[in-house]
Amino acid sequence: MTVPDPTKPNLAETTGPHVSIVETEDAVARRAKEAYFTASQYQLIWARFRRNRSAMIAGIILLSLILMGVFAPFLSPYDPTIAGRDKDYTNGAPQIPKFCDEAGCSARPFIYGVKRERSMATNFRWVTSIDTEDRRYLQWFVEGEKYKLFGITFTTHLFGVDRGFIHLFGTDDTGKDIFSRTLHAIYTSLAVGTLGVLISFVLALMIGGIAGYFGGLIDGAIQMVTDAVRTIPIIPLFMAIAAFIPQEWSSEMRFFFISIIIGLINWPTLARRVRTHLLVERNQEYVLAAQLSGAGAGHIIRRHLLPSFSSYIIVDLVISFPYIVLSETALSFIGLGLKDPVNSLGVMLQNTTSADVLLNYQWYFIPVFFFIALVMAFVFVGDGLRDAADPYAGTKK
Predict the structure, then answer these.
(1) Can you spell out the DSSP letters for 220-262?
(2) How far apart are CA 387 and CA 130, in angstroms?
(3) Where is the domain boundary, 171, 190, 207?
(4) Among 61, 202, 250, 349, which is most exposed with the fewest C-beta within 10 angstroms?
(5) Residue 216 falls in which region: left (phi positive, over 0), alpha (psi -120 to 50) or beta
């Protein structure tokens, strides 16, 4: 009988399946730990953000709305600025495609046509009714009105019908397609918000950077200006501006003017945060090393101080985006912002203020749900990014 040597490992024990599984798990854990310590700041933020389920769902919704706005000319069947295109269907209810009716089923979705006739019940006025015998089949990638996308002219739209018109969200009192108007309104509101955010972002970095880096009298003077801008009442300001806007200005001119004004009054919050961070960071050793190397103040702020908390700046931009969209929507809603023929969410919300709409034309409220979804998606994504950018978020009790 052979006695095993205790100084030599037992091959059966070291090569068994259980030991190999343990070694594999240890290797995976070791690689995960190495990846964590070697990951960049943005990779860590993305890893934390993915664990936030509500933020991920909101991000998918937000991305979908952005794509809907960007590709609105292709997704919408008609030009939303042309009134009276479908004279037989003004204030028409949404037309929902269907596959089956009393006459049978079809492999292709269809809608019903409409007909106008004079009715004795309304003193021989024109009345629009649904013609259930007139099937109009849905088609994909149809040729229609010209539009420009990324500077290129196209005529292909995502869907349409073989005859007449289709209105998924119904029409307004001028015959405009509400579905097409909603998609273009999302794009306009996002464009106003983007321009406003960029203006406020540049001003906040410049003003907050100068105040935080130099401090002293310069900081005091800048903070006085910042506090003065923060105390400006927005609604009276826009009422005064609206009174001086020339009526002959084009819609594009009003669009850029409103965007610039919104950007000019929304920079103080981010500027304060930039200033606070730079007041702390300006005394660090890497800043002193840059100063001793002969680097100027602009170079130090731009290349060293601001990148040290760039993730927080991005989070702040995302969080401030819905407030700028809300500003545009509120101003357009009360008639001080954009106006027809420009389509924005605020302009479309103007049509929901009458009691007649609430009682008889409830489909006018469909754009309201897109507005709520857009704002809420920005809020949830912003909150998720803020938590993900906090390095101590996982250690808080």
Answers:
(1) HHHHHHHHHHHTS-HHHHHHHHHHHS-TT--HHHHHHHHHHHH
(2) 53
(3) 171
(4) 250
(5) left
Question: Residue holding tokens 């042309």?
Answer: 82
* 270: amino acid identity, one letter: L
Q: What contacts 290, CB < 8 A, 6 or more positions away? A: 299, 300, 304
117 φ/ψ angles, rounded to the nearest 5 degrees: -155, 155
Measure the CA–CA gap between 225 and 169, rounded to whole angstroms.
47
Q: What is the CATH number of the domain that holds 233?
A: 1.10.3720.10
Total-model pTM? 0.78
pLDDT in tens, 148-205: 888 889 999 999 998 888 889 988 888 888 999 999 999 888 888 888 888 888 888 8
Give strand ranges (E) for the chain. 98-101, 104-119, 125-149, 152-161
The verdict on 119 and 197 lying in the same domain is no
Q: Is 118 left (phi over 0), alpha (psi -120 to 50) or beta?
A: beta
Domain of residue 321 covers 181-395
Name, in order, each residue with C-beta under 8 angstroms of 327's C-beta and a sequence gap of 6 or more. Answer: 196, 234, 262, 266
Q: Please give the Cα distance from 120 to 240 (Å, whole number).
A: 51
